[in-house]
Adenosine deaminase
Amino acid sequence: MTHLPKIELHLHLEGAAPPAFIRGLAKEKHVDISGIFDERGDYSYTDFWDFLRVYEAATSVLQTPEDYARLTAAVLAESAANDVIYCETFLSPDFCGGRDLGAWREYLHAIREAADRAEAQDGITLRGIVTPIRHFGPDKAREVALCAAETAGDWIVGFGIGGDEKAGKPKDFAWSFDMAREAGLRLTAHAGEWGGPESVRDALRDLRVERIGHGVRAIEDLALVDELAEAGVVLEVCPGSNIALGLYPDWRRHPIGQFHDRGVKVTVSTDDPPFFHTTMRNEYDRLSKAFDWDDGVFRAINATAAGAAFCDEATRARLQKRLEP
Ligand code: ADE
Ligand code: ZN
């Protein structure tokens, strides 16, 4: 099953940057971020909040559209090598041009050109989900939502929110989500990762999202689990991320198996793969061993992901065809 064609719905573009790539850019730009790496050259952090600090320090060397084009090429080459045929990536105008609409358009243009080259070369399709950073606050999120609304279309297909789930409440961001929805964007939100089941309920009620990033802490409220199954809410589950960040002690005790057994629509993604020493093949391999899942389970998970992708219907039909055995 590790070689099956795969769909990944939850990938942060900056978070997918290999440490050697970031070190190379830092050297070119004479920026000293050596403190974010350990002696082996991997990213070094102590917990989720330290991870966010290291993530933002790494991102500080991505300073031009060309840097993002190079990043996109590197990330998609790695994804394609893991049999990923379709990927949705979180992009933040906060990092791409400081929320200036003109600059954001230039970053987006460079990213799309790199994605088009990867598609022609490796047959991997990329789409973007614009994502404010929760701990940057609701005012910045509004500016991000305006950038998202102005660039919504066949490539920017979604709007989400990441960052520190303990900063503020989902309803603080309702204006931004309303703006994105009115622009035709499909909606997801990180919730139920560092916040409990209430955080998932709040995101569903106040932001009216159709997918939840992570959502795993919903397992602490089985009535909510049943509601998720009933409503067909799709979870973008990133087990390797949750384990690396200490939410669950090991793969067997990760709740994805319980969600699956209770009929919740689960999908599998890597979140920020080099930070968590994972890849899509590794996620499939570890899940198959932990839960004794065979090809049939992973095919069903990818069918769920194809159905939940925010792309247009022609693209979805092409993906579904490629997923056929
Ligand atoms: N940004 C990058 N990775 C994240 C995660 N796992 N949770 C919230 N925000 C993030
Ligand atoms: Zn994430």
Summary: The first strand starts at residue 6 and ends at 12. The two ends are 12 Å apart (CA to CA).
